[in-house]
Amino acid sequence: MFTSVILAAGMGTRMKSEMPKVIHRVCGKPLTKWVIDASKEAGADNVLAIVGHKADMVKETLGEVCEYAIQSEQKGTGHAVMQAVDFIKAHKGSTVILNGDTPLITADTINKAIEYHNSEGNSATVITAILDDATGYGRIVRDNKGDVLKIVEHKDATDEERKINEINSGMYVFDSESLVGALSELTPNNAQGEYYLTDTLEILLSQGRKVGAYAISDNDEIRGINDRVQLWEAEKIMQERINKSHMKNGVTMRLPETIMIESDVTIGADTIIEPNVSIKAGTTIGKNCVIGEGTKLDKAIIHDNVDILKSVILNSEIDEGTHVGPFAYVRPNCKVGKDVKVGDFVELKNSTIDDGTKISHLTYIGDSDVGKAVNFGCGTVTCNYDGKNKYRTTIGDNCFVGCNTNFVSPINVGDNAYIAAGSTITEDIPSKTLSIARARQVNKEDWTDKRNK
Ligand code: UD1
Ligand code: CA
Prior knowledge:
This protein is α/β, with parallel strands linked by helices. The chain folds into two domains: 2-222, Alpha-Beta Complex (Spore Coat Polysaccharide Biosynthesis Protein SpsA, Chain A); 350-453, UDP N-Acetylglucosamine Acyltransferase, domain 1 (3 Solenoid), CATH 2.160.10. Helix content is 21%, strand content 30%. It contains ten helices and 39 strands. The strands form six sheets. It has a 16-stranded parallel sheet that branches. Strand 2 and strand 3 (29-30) form a beta hairpin. Helix 7 crosses helix 8. The longest helix has 21 residues, at 228-248. The mean pLDDT is 97. Residues 7, 9-10, 50, 71, 74-77, 79-80, 99-101, 137-138, 151, 153, 167-170, 196-198, 224 line the site of uridine-diphosphate-N-acetylglucosamine.
């Protein structure tokens, strides 16, 4: 039970971007969304993000996942938290302060810091790390008993203080009431003329309250992102976390360093993911599947025992035992049944394909409803667009569609119909009918000899 306040008002100049830094993405998820999710996973009841630079764009990207406060002018980290005073006052207990550009922080670390904070009876606990190179960070100044005295910013530090390698991560646990009190006493008397949140520690100590530091073990968790190189470094770490968690759940990954899986993906046990696969957020994969090399899945629902090779599946559902690819393109809004074959160079769009149907090669099926156990010959095309409107094609169960058939939709084909190869179908076909829609063949004998004369 705690409240979380996330600082996300900054511009992020070094990203060299039209987009605010805090909504750049790591593994498909905006930086600040990672921090919000870690807070919630740790048990935050109320989360607020302080936004400023392009606030509307930030709010729209993150959505209604937390409350927002606006800091229209950036006058320092203390000033940022002041914008959340009403929110902090409304929720008793602890307030955890996090940064919107530090996506690798985990729920586990937040919980451990809170536990430490509570067990020590602190008014404020700063999360710290020991770095080889502390340049740029605020330093943790302790007395000779090892108690925290204050945090001094790099710019304000003496040469002696700059030698300290314990740094302020910029994340804290505060007793909410104490925090509100200390914020009201902040002044901008420092090198940058800013209201430093870090000064609240000294203020609390001067009030006779207890202040402490919680040192984390994994420095990666406090990596802040300032430019695209750091974005890439964070993504590598996050991707490794995601891939390892799937492996621990029973997923085999071959050359996992080439496999990109975004957040919010579920994969069943005994599924094998081959190299160079990209799986976007919102995808679900069942058990015992093979996701073959070079495949891209975006918001796909893949049931058990499906195998897919070098194919793209967007916003569509593939049922059990179906085989897809190589080089199939399943565009949005398709529902493919059980034990279907979607073979090489097959494109599907906005269509339902029922169980047991075989679409083996070089075929386009768009805006169609196909029944069970239909066999498509090579090169079938639904002509679903007349240049103005789109129309549907409906094909019943157990039909046989000869090679190189065109369906000029709208077309309805009944069950158990046969279509001769090379037919261009412009009219509905009743069930159990053989339809031949092509010019009769003419053989002109000895024609070559006559031409050569
Ligand atoms: C801050 C800490 C420093 C710590 C470092 C860790 C202070 C005074 N210093 O320094 O001790 O080592 O973080 O990274 O707190 N922000 C706002 N509004 C503002 C100012 C900042 O929202 O007016 C946000 C930024 O967008 C960023 C975060 O607060 O997400 C930290 O601000 P930043 O300017 O990077 O602080 P530092 O100077 O790095
Ligand atoms: Ca910073």
